[in-house]
Amino acid sequence: MERQIYSSLYERLLLSNDKESVLAVAKNKKQPSDGKEIIKDPMFLEFLGLKREASYYERDLENAIITHLQEFLLELGNGFSFVARQKRIHLDGDEFQPYHIRLFHSLFKGRDDVFAIHWEKSGKSGYVPAYQYDLYHYRIHKMNGGVFQNYPHKTYLPLTETEIQKHLNGVQQIGIYPLLQNNTSWFLVADFDKQNWKEEGLTFLNACKEKNIPAYLERSRSGSGGYVTSKMNFAMENELPLSRNGKSTLMRFTFF
């Protein structure tokens, strides 16, 4: 009895998701077969507000920890600030080189006259077009009852190598407008978010390979889906972008 008290057996039983195994080891009815049955997990998640589960998605832990740190830093007041939920830390020689920018631009070739910027506020997030405008002039517009939507003196901020460099360095998160003004596109992204997203994504990926279309399958940030990015690069003397009809043609070949 004394040994069980000092080894916190009762607390471990209450916290464990496999009470029978813990009790069997305590009664010497079962010998530990791996280190997880001997070494206690030092992570306590109560302060994160997560429900007790046998396992967690990395994204859930990351979001909970960052939110907790954000609230903590904001409570500290003057002298402290929360810079970003994700920020790249640079080491010597860790900067992206010009060829990285050219590679990014070759894979995600879209409109150069406009790009989108990611925002987060009060637990919500999204993308909006990046604009350039005179802050003083816009302040006067607001004082006269105007809002940003009806402010007439804003123009799109063009997508330059500087903006791509800031994206790669983690300073900002940008979005590409793939649909060109002539209703064509250089690349196609197919999103799969249903229960069988892996099978559908692989089917789509294999269809691209059969057509000799370079394609890449990536998991979505939520972890519950994925998307295939395919670069439409035809072996022609003059490389031409794919029209919107190309998506339906490829989907028909893949699934029907």
In short:
It is built from nine helices and ten strands.
Structure write-up:
- This protein folds into three domains: 75 residues, no CATH class; 69 residues, no CATH class; 72 residues, Alpha-Beta Plaits (2-Layer Sandwich), CATH 3.30.70.
- 36% of the residues lie in helices and 15% in strands.
- The longest helix is centred in the N-terminal third of the chain and has 19 residues.
- Strand 1 and strand 2 form a beta hairpin.
Give the N-terminus to C-terminus distance in angstroms. 67 Å
Largest sheet: 3 strands, antiparallel
Please provide the count of β strands.
10
Give the assembly state of these chains. Answer: single chain
Main sheet: which strands, in order across? 2-1-5
Strand-residue fraction? 15-25%
Indicate the low-confidence ranges by residue numbers: 233-240
- What do the pLDDT scores average to? 76
Q: Number of folding domains?
A: 3
Principal-axes shape call: flat
* Percent in helix: 25-40%
How many helices? The count is 9
SSE arrangement, N to C: HHHHHEEEHEHEEEHEEEH
